Every structure is written in C-alpha cells, then in structure tokens.
Amino acid sequence: MMTLPYAEPYKIKMTEAIRTSTREEREAWIREARYNLFKLRSDQVTIDLLTDSGTGSMSDRQWAAMMTGDESYAGASSYFRLKTTVAELFGMPWFLPTHQGRAAENVIFSALLKEGDIVPGNSHFDTTKGHIEFRRCHAVDCTIDAAADTQLELPFKGEMDLAKLEKVLAENPREKIPCVVLTVTNNTAGGQPVSMRNIRETAELCRRYGVPLLMDSARFAENAYFIKTREEGYASKTIKEIVREIYTYADIMTISAKKDGVVNMGGFVAMRSEELYKRAMTFSIMFEGYVTYGGMSGRDMDALAVGLDENTEFEQLDARIRQMLQEVSAALEKRIAQFGLDSKIQQIAKMTQNTSVREWKRAVKDTLGIDILDDYYSGELYEQAIQRWIAENVAYIKSLPTETLGNMRQIILDGYLNGRPIRDIQKDIQSEYGTSKRHAQLLARDQLATLNAQITKMQQTDAGCKKYRWSTSHDSRVRPCHAALNGKTFDWNDPPEMWYDTKAGRVYTGRKCHPGEDYCCRCVAIPVFDYDGVNIPMK
Predict the structure, then answer these.
(1) In the predicted model, is pLDDT for residue 294 greater than 50?
(2) Is 0.85 surpassed by the pTM of this model?
(3) Looking at domain 60-320, which CATH architecture does it have?
(4) How many CB atoms sit inside 10 A of residue 274's CB?
(5) Which of 158, 218, 394, 437 has its CA 20 to 30 Å from the CA of residue 349?
(6) Crossing angle between the packed helical segments 239-248 and 220-230, to the nearest 10 degrees
(7) Residue of higher predicted confidence among 500 and 78
(8) How far apart are CA 391 and CA 267, in angstroms?
(9) Count of C-beta atoms within a 10 Å radius of residue 320
C-alpha cells in the first residue's frame, strides 16, 4: 500500500514578500540599536524569533469572519458568538474580552488580589508575576525541580510540584491565598507541557483547601496536543475533548489569544463564578472598555471565535508543531552531507559492537567456560540494531543548531574514531563552546552508552538470559537511584523505573531503563544464566 508524503492540511492563498538583508546591514542596524534587539524595526528582521504572539497566518474562514464583525458598543453579535465558543470549548459561562493576555491578568488580579496575598504557581510568566508583585503580593514558584535540569528529558516537564504547593497552602491562612496559577504550557520553564494527571491532582489539592484554580491558557491547545501524544489513555480522544476535560478542573482562566487562537490581537478572562464576574466587570470597564468588547473590535472577536474552533483540531496543531522541525531537518541534511556523517557514525557503531562482543565473550568464558563465535554477533539481527542506532544519531546531530555542526562534529566524531579518551573530548567541547562539564559529558558519552546497552541486551536475551544483575561502577559519581539498584536482579522484559530525590521527597520519572540506557549511565548488566535454557553459539 503506497504511503503518501506528508502535506500541510491547508492551502496557502497569500504570501508576503520578505527582504533578505546583508550581513553588513544587520551589523550596522544592531550597532545603531545599541545591541538591544527590541529596538530593531520589523523590516530589518528577516526571520523573527522574538515571539509567536500575533504572528500566525489567519485562515480563510477567519478573514471571512472579519467582514461580518459587529462594531456595536453594547450587545454586539460578535461578542455573543465568541461567548458561545468560550462556553462550548472551555465550559466557562462568564467571560470578559480584553485586548491581550496581560490585560486579562490586570482585570482578574484587580478583582482577586489585595496587598500581602500569596499566589503559588508553576513558574509564573513575567507579566503574571509583574501584576502580582505590583500589587505588593508574593508570587511563589512551585514548579517541579526537574524543570530546571536542562539535561533531563521528561514528557511533562512543566508540572506543579504538589508537595511544594501543599506546603504553601498548609502554612498560610486561606484568606491570604486568593488563587493558584497553573500555566499550560509552562512558558517560563521553556514551553514545557503539564499532564492531565498533574492538572487533575492540582485541582483536587486546591479544592481541598478551598482555593480557586486559575489557568494561564496562552498555549492550551499545544498542551492538549502533548497530552494526546504523550499521556496514556488520551491517544483516541480529540483535542476538543481533551481541552474540555482540562477546564473542568479550572475555576478561572486567562488567555492571550494571539497564540493558540491564531489571531493578530485579543484575549479574555473567563470564570465559573457569577459573583467574581460582577467584581471583575468594574475593572474591565475601567481598564479595557465596555464588557461586550473590552478593547477588541467586533471583527477581531469573530476571527477569534473561528480561530479557537479551527486550532483545536489535531491536524492543525500537528502541522504547526512539526513544521519548523521538518524545515530545519531538510536544510541540515543537505548541509551535512559533505561531511560523510553516516559513514563516520557507522564506523563508531562497529567499534562499539566489537568492544561489546569482546566483553561478552570474556563473560561467557569466565562464567560457563565456553568460547563463542564472534561472527554470530555480526549477523542480520545485530546489523539492524546498528543501523537503527545510526539513523537515530544522524537525526540527533541534524537537530543541533546549524552553527554548532562543524566543530562539534569534528570534536566528537573524529575524537571517537581516533580513540581519544572521553575526558579529552569533553575538555575540547567545553573549550570550544563554553558549555558545562555535564553537558559536555552528555554529548561525548551518552549515545555510545545507549548503543552498548542495546547490544548487551540483544546478546544476553539471544543467549537465553532472561535476567541480569545490575552492577554500578562503584564510585562516588554513581547516582542514588542506580546505587539502590546495585546487586539486584531484573528481568530484561521489565526494567526498573528511574527516580530522583527532592527536598519534598522521591519523584518517579515514569522512565524505565536497563543499565546503560539512562542519561550518561556507566552501569552494566551482569548476565544471570539459566543453565538449562542457555543457547550460546560455540566455536
């Protein structure tokens, strides 16, 4: 059955010319701006990575809606169309339009906060924190510690630390905490998503203490996308179904609609409480405009109503999220072809395989007194594993920023090929890029450790070893999680779950690993032979 190549789920009906400047022009403009890039004019910037706020292209349906906008001061039909969309999508019956997200924060915090209040949250966005502290209140960060670890990969890295949050709730009077803020996705932590489980548990904790949950929702649709693609039990649900569930746990929401609403301007605050709505109305009229437009034109409200509907469809989100990665990958593939990347990684993989076979041969000889065939472990099954690892690492290197490819490639790849020690390669990376020791170690060691772990698993399971004994390197650098596993026996089909310690207690990552598979892991798997079931190719 033929598989069609990927195509964007939309037609492009309009383009905008972009002038490409020269390097000399850019250097002059940056000097004139005194190196403050915020002072550059838009026509001086070819590719603008400052923000995605208001920069998306609206659809034909959105442009058509702009033509039917009702600009009436009160009772505009555009207002009611947006109100209906908000109620259907988020389940919030009361809402106030604002001209942007920070305006929504200004309205709701004016109604909620008083001097001395405490507002816990998962890494407050800068305008959120500004509105809180401007009112002489305290914004308390309750994000999980893992969010600060740039080398740690987690599917949901922007989550609320429930232990931290409960500590704040338990140690302060209820009247001092007007709300808890949960940002989805977590912008300040690098746009990291929050799982549905964490949203649910945060809401349950808030309700236990009688505190409203306010959800900062600028990228709510992206968060729903990551829940669908990463969290168990949500793969078959639509984005709209996931969004509706998310907001069953929220009492209040603010949104900068320029992001996931894909409009040029606009935002709103919505809530379940009519009493809070009536308090917020006063501030909306004072700061924004009348309650049925709140700083937005009718046409913009209509465009937003359509945008919220369109951009909570999986195909649209999938195209947006993958678009840039595909473009960069294609550009880099052409650029790095000249370096013979595939062949170099092939050589590295073969070296690692040969080393692994020698170690395995020695283990079998010492344990069982059997000499094994080297050639067996160069067969089709092992070749497939090697090729899979090569493909993954080619893709990994393609994902590096363009400017790092040249020297980084030479340092790492040529270093391995020439047999240079890891510590020397690490020092070269640090010297060239000013990176941290830990990051250099990751780049120099992690991928080869992963390959070695994969080959080890194949060798042992192929020989009939169903279990292994975890063995660390027995030095001070062994992480506590791995030290606790040392000497324990595990099944190759059931790897142990990894964890790390925080001040609030042990946190399980959900990531299961065999020895060598965890980040920069130096542990090894000692085979546990079943003498009746052993199946080793002998000389």
Answers:
(1) yes
(2) no
(3) 3-Layer(aba) Sandwich (3.40)
(4) 9
(5) 437
(6) 110
(7) 78
(8) 43
(9) 18
